[in-house]
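Why show two proteins at once? Because comparison is the fastest way to build intuition. When a single record is shown, students tend to memorize it. When two are placed side by side, the eye starts asking what differs. So, the first record is below.
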Amino acid sequence: MSEEEQIEEMMARVRQLELKARRLVRESFSGEYLSSFRGQGLDFDDFREYQHGDEVRFIDWNVTARMNEPFVRKFREERELSVVMAVDVSGSADFGSKHLSKRELSAEIAAILGFSALQNGDQVGLLIFSEEPLMFIPPAKGTKHLLRMIREVLMAKPEKKGTSIEEACNFLIKSLKRKALVFMISDFHAENLDKPLGKLARKHETVALRVNDPLEEELSNAGRVVLIDPETGFETMVNTSNPNLRMAYKKLMKRQAEGAATVFKKHGIDTATLMTDHDTLPALHQLLKRRGRRRK
């Protein structure tokens, strides 16, 4: 397939994603998004006289001195969010044993959340990363802007195939000057999750969306097969007919998932697991319902 044909095929996939995401947002998603993600801070509105029960820390002492009676600062909730999708496009992101690869699933998630954000009047940005940050598109509004983001997720070709959540977190902490909502979209098959995610979550509201494939959770009984690590290129022959090997693999992957979940819980990071062989909406709905209940 020529490069021109590849680009045309990619654009067709982007258009399909746009249509699907718009329909899902219109039919069942935007209301939950609105109630789950509101503004990240408070904007100064006006002054008014102090009333019993007002917080002392909101007293403006300069105005109080001029007026000879206490005045407090009034605030309004800052409605507009800066939403950033941090999408993992490392070697493992291109794996998929069923309907979608993890990268395609990530692009679908970014499209759904992105159109929800735009409908809510929010700005949307993108960080693509693997072993290092590859591309940063600052938050902005507009459908063309979002479609470019989705296209970049699908087309990115990292030279270094590894995964570094740490490098992604450090980049976002340095680059985002005001508090933002960060969706970290990855399989989280990486080392050093604890401190980087903790630092990011302290500065920005962070949501971890773990993309996974069923074959990564449990090996099929397929006899002798060659397994290749897509991030390091390491190859090994394994006998998947061995029930002890399949059990050991299943336990290993379960520990890895539990380790990531422990990190998320420790730092108050909301999370959802999204599978390549399942509809994304139920898991996203559950995530937003949990957040909506807490806000109420």
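Second record. Ask yourself what differs from the first in the token line.
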Amino acid sequence: MRKLIPLAAMLIIGVCLSGCEENQKIDLSAEEIVDKALVAIESPITYYGEFEESDGEKYKEWADSDGKSKLKRRDRLQQTVEMFDGKQLFLYDEENGMVAAIKRSYKDIGFSTRSLRLRSGFLLELVKEQCELSVVGEEKVAGRNTYHIVGSQNGGKACIGKPEYWIDQENSMVLKIFENYDERQKVTIEYTKVDFDAKISDDAFVFDFPEGAGVNTIVDPEESSVQEAKEKLGKFFQVPETAEIKLSEIIIFEENKERPEFTFDYTKNGQPEFSVTVFPSSGEIDFGNFLDEEIIAAHGQKGINNSNLHSFSYTWMENGLLYTATSKNTELNEEDFIGYLDGMIEVQ
């Protein structure tokens, strides 16, 4: 005759088996789960999804394994559409009737798109660097099994927003994000529907521009040099380097070939201090025509003060070039900021 197992023993066994099973499911660390998500995002996949943000904005998304994607956003007032054809990202704004075209690779599209999957890459890179990550459990999002990852303060580093991520267990796609900055600012972005077996036709990626919509091609800034600035600007003024102040980077923005724009970034002891942007002016500017303009003297020239609560910013014109200098260090005082500008020397 078979012996009966006491009820208490059965409960203990059941709890043990349940716990063991759960532990077997989460056999990856938070860092491993995030690393898998970062690898997965490098390769396009096919899916149809719908997600929404806590501010009420709703999105519909189509993506294909060849890298093409399309996204429609609807808020209470207007609709925007973006489409990526593998080489360019097209952004249509219904309010102003314009289409912006930005040259992008699949690898770089995450910095420009509103797609939760595509932009989650750089978000995960950031949280991996700043925060201590832990797996707090498994949850369902849009009917799919996910790992729930939480970021917390890592030593002396600030874990901004105390982010939480829900990552699909099967294909490592981020399905939900939560960020908590304070009681008044909490952000949730969550897929409410996602179908990885969706049959998406080529017609889904047709982007017919609305009648009358203009197309504005946007050119990204690129790294440059003092030599290139001399060639395209001619004589110009530059803040000289010292033992503390170093010219860290020069960027050229050349959307208009006749009007190249150079930005010179300076650091002090390795930390951002200020920047100076220079470009040819289309004509003389008589500063002071507007009642709210605060007139200042910068590098001995008449200019205006564009400063705000967070930074100093002066704009002036000199020898046909328009200069705008902006502080980058909140501890920089106005006297020292002006000193940098007064010390600018001519580059020939």
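One difference worth noting in the second protein: The longest strand covers residues 131-141.
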